[in-house]
From TrEMBL:
InterPro entries on file: BTB/POZ_dom, SKP1/BTB/POZ_sf, T1-type_BTB
GO biological process, any: protein homooligomerization
Organism domain of life: Eukaryota
Pfam families, sorted: BTB_2
Signal sequence, start to end: none
Domain annotation BTB: ranges: 29-127
Stated name of the protein: BTB domain-containing protein
Length: 277
């Protein structure tokens, strides 16, 4: 749906009707507004300053706007943060950081592109929001992964003040099968092991094949999101300590001279997310 279609849908929700082709609404230079019970007085030029905004469309003369019993133009929207929309139109003033996300929501509703771009450039909370939105696009089933972590942490929550969720990667390139020893060419080493992470069993296994980031960045992002949501969490990396040596090289002492990949280690990683309750 294009911008015009979005405008029309939103105008309908606000009970604002389009005028007929041969009729236009004449607005006074000074406009009295009732936005969800919040009263404002501003100029017509302020409301129509940004031509691509929904406010400019509303007060273009092409639409009939309902009035309240006192004759104020009524917009059926929570008006708590509307003054910041007006202040930006008046003098390019940006809202304080503590309400930046709320103002962003209103700016998006009224299609105030200039205000949205300013907030995305300088407001830390909005920048953080956009970063999180970007990462979510890189992670299929992100909400499922996050909610699964929270569920596991809650299930393991006891009378203690913390619980741990262990996350591993299902498609990590582990040591397995017949591995040749490049030092002693006659030997092959059979490998079949289960990764061990300091005695911690895996709670959640994730495949990274369909994701455009590695598991370290994924877990780091999830932990940031959990912290943003109010959880007290930390994360540690635990590496599988499994390693092997070619028996022939071991007996001859050659592995100490850089033979068999001397010794070869698994290096699969588990991420342990600790919740403090």
């Amino acid at each position: 749906m294009g911008k015009i279609g979005q405008f029309e849908e939103r105008l309908k929700k606000l009970c604002i009707n389009t005028t007929s082709d041969d009729k236009s609404t004449q607005f006074p230079n000074v406009i009295n507004l009732n936005v969800g019970g919040y009263l404002f007085t501003t100029s017509l030029s302020t409301l129509t300053k940004y031509e691509d905004s929904m406010l400019a469309v509303m007060f273009s003369g092409r639409h009939d706007i309902v009035k309240d019993e006192d004759g104020r133009y009524f917009i059926d929207r929570d008006g708590k943060f509307f003054r910041y929309i007006l202040n930006f139109s008046r003098s390019n003033d940006l809202p304080p950081e503590n309400v930046a996300l709320d103002v962003l929501k209103e700016a998006e509703f009224f299609c105030m592109t200039s205000l949205i771009e300013k907030l995305e450039a300088v407001a830390p909370k909005v920048i953080s929001l956009r970063r999180r939105e970007y990462f979510r696009q890189l992670i299929p089933d992100y909400e499922h992964i996050k909610n699964n972590i929270i569920q596991k942490a809650t299930e393991k929550k006891t009378c203690f003040e913390e619980s741990k969720v262990v996350i591993t990667q299902s498609d990590h390139p582990k040591l397995k099968g017949q591995i040749p020893c490049y030092n002693c060419t006659r030997e092959f080493v059979s490998v079949n092991h289960t990764c061990a992470f300091e005695g911690l069993p895996s709670d959640i296994t994730i495949s990274m094949k369909t994701m455009d980031i590695d598991i370290d960045k994924l877990i780091g992002f999830v932990v940031d999101e959990l912290s943003h949501d109010g959880f007290r969490v930390t994360v540690n990396r635990v590496i599988c300590k499994f390693s092997l040596r070619c028996q022939g090289c071991t007996l001859s002492g050659l592995y100490t001279a850089g033979g068999i990949l001397a010794p070869r280690e698994c290096t699969n990683v588990a991420h342990v997310i600790k919740f403090q309750w």
